[in-house]
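COURSE: Structural Biology Practicum
ASSIGNMENT: Worksheet 4, Part C
STUDENT ID: 0417
INSTRUCTIONS: Below are two proteins. For each, the amino acid sequence is given first, followed by its C-alpha cell string. Answer the questions at the end about the second protein only.

PROTEIN I
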Amino acid sequence: MNKYLNGNDLWEMGYKFSNSIGIHAPELNMHLAFVSICNLYFVFEGFRQNGQKISNWSNTIIFLCSFFFVLFVNTRMALFNVLFGFVLVFFGEVFRKYNYKKVAGIFAILIVTLGTVLFFFVQNNPYMKEKYSSVTFAYMDKVGKLDEIANPETKVFNSLVTRVSIWKSAWELSLKHLPFGVGASDGKSELINYFKQTNQHFLAKYEFPTHNQFLDYLLKFGILGPIVVLFYIGSMGYLGIDLKNAIVFSFFFLFFTSNLTDDFLLRFNGIAFSGLWMAIFGSYWLQQKIIADKESIVL
C-alpha cells in the first residue's frame, strides 16, 4: 500500500499484494470481482427494500472498497469481468424492479461513483494507463518468437503475446496427440519439451503452463477434455438463465472467461471455489423448482 501511495514499482503492486497472503493474483482478483458484483446487488436490494437507512449506506461503502481492491490487485480479466457483472446486475435487477425514472437516476449515480473511484485510482497509479494500452498489446508480431525480444522477462512476462505464444504451442502439440491427448500427468512436461524443441527458450526457462483450461484439457485428454470443461462451466450458465438471476449468470461469465486466460481447475482453490458456488446455485435452483411445483399443484 505504501508503494502504491508513493508510486513505486506499480507494475508489480498487485502481484506482491496477492503473494503476501499466499494466493495467485488472478485467482485472488477472481474472488474479489465476484465479491464486488454481489455487493452491488446488495446495495440495490437494500435501497429497494429498506430505503436510505444507515445500513444501506454501509453496504455502499463496502461495495466501493471491494471495487477498489479489484483495481488494486489490477488483473485485466478481473476488471473486465467485474464491469460486465455490474452491467448484468444493473439490467437484470434494476430494470426489472424499478420504474424508468429511478433506473436513469441509479444509472447516473453508478457511473459517477465508479468513474470517481477509477479516476482517483488511476491518478495514483499512472502505470494502469500503460498496462491497458501499450504493455498489454506490445510485441504481438513476436508470437512464438519471444526470444527475439531483448530481455523478455521485463518486457513481456505478463503480456498478451506471452499467453498467445503458449496457446499457440499448446494447440500445435494437442493436434499432434489427437484424439486422446498426452495423458493427465504428462501435459506440462510435454508442453515444456515442445518449447525446447521449437527453440522457445524463454517459455521453457520459466516452464509456463497453458494458462487456458480448455487447451490444457485438450492437450491432456484429447477431444473429450474441453467438452467436459465446457459442460461443467456451462451448467452454471444454464442455472443463471433458467433462474433469470444476474448473480448466477455473472458468476458463470466470470469463471468461463477466467478459464480462457488461466487454468483454475488445475488448482484445488479453483475447484473448491467453483464447486462451492455450483452447489449453492444448484440448491437454490432446486428450491425454486420445488416452490413452482407446489404452486402449480395448488392451482
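PROTEIN II
(use this one for the questions)
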Amino acid sequence: MTTDAFRSNPDNFCYRHPDRQSFALCQRCGRTICGECQTQGAVGVICPECMREQRRAAPRVARAARSRGSTLSVVRDTRPLVTFWIMGITAVAYLTQLIPGSPVQQLLAFNSLLVMPQVGFEPWRLFTVLLVHGSFWHMGLNMLALFMIGRSLEPLLGRWRFLSLYLLSGLGGSVAVALLAPGVWVVGASGAIFGLFGALLVIGRHIGANVTGIVIIIAINFALPIILGIVGGSLAAIRISGEAHVGGFIVGAAVGFLFARTRGVRQQRLQQWLLIAVAVVLLALLIIPAVLYV
C-alpha cells in the first residue's frame, strides 16, 4: 500500500480524531481508535460509543451492583502499561543480580548450547536473557530506549501487539546468536529493543511519517559499539552481541510489516496466525545449530 493510499483510507485513523493514526481497533465494532478513545475491556479495547451502548444494555446489572455496595466505573488508561511492566520486571531482575552469590544471571543468560537436546535443553533462556544485563548502564540504556519507543509505539499498536513484538524480537535476537555465535554467552534486552526500532521504522514509513530521526538513532546504536571498540582498542572488550542486535532488528521489522499489512477487522485472525508462524519459523531455525555445531 502506498503512502497516499494509506492517508486516504479513514480506517487507518481514529474515527473520533481523524488526525490521529492508530493500529488499535474496537473489539466490538472494529473501528480504529486512538489511545485517548480506548477503554480497556475484558478481551480488548472498546470505543466510547460501544461502551455507552454496553452501559445502556445492562442498566439493571449496574443498579444491582451499586445496591451491593460495588461500583462500576470505566477507567480510561492510555498509559503504556506493558512498557512499564517490562521495565519494572527487568529492573527487579537486575537488582537480584546484585545480591552476593546470586545465581540469577547464570540461570537466565542465553547460550545456544543450552537449547540443544544433545547438550542441554533449557529453552526458557531464549526469553529470560532479556531480563539480565551485564551492568547498570547496560540495563539503564536499554530500559531508557524501551521507554522512549514504548510510550509512542504501544498506544499505536495496542498492548498485546506490542508485547508480541517485543517477545518475538527478543526471540529473533537469541536465534541469531545461536546461528552466528554458537556457544557464546549473552545477556540483555538489546535484541528486543532493536526489534522495536525495526518495527517503528517500518510502521513509520508505512504511515508516511518522517523516519529520518529514527534512521539516525538506529545508525548511532549500531555504530556505537564499533566506535567504542575502536577507542578502546578491542571490539571484543565491548562484549556487545551484534548478532542479537541484527536478529532482533530483522524480526522486529518483519513483524512491523505484518502489522501494517493486516490491519483490517477481517484480517485479525490472519494476523494472529502469522505471528504464530513467525515464532514457529524462529524456533525451527534452532535445528540448524543443533545439527551443524554439535
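ANSWER KEY EXCERPT:
Q1: The radius of gyration is 21 Å.
Q2: Strands lie at 39-40, 45-46, 115-116, 120-121.
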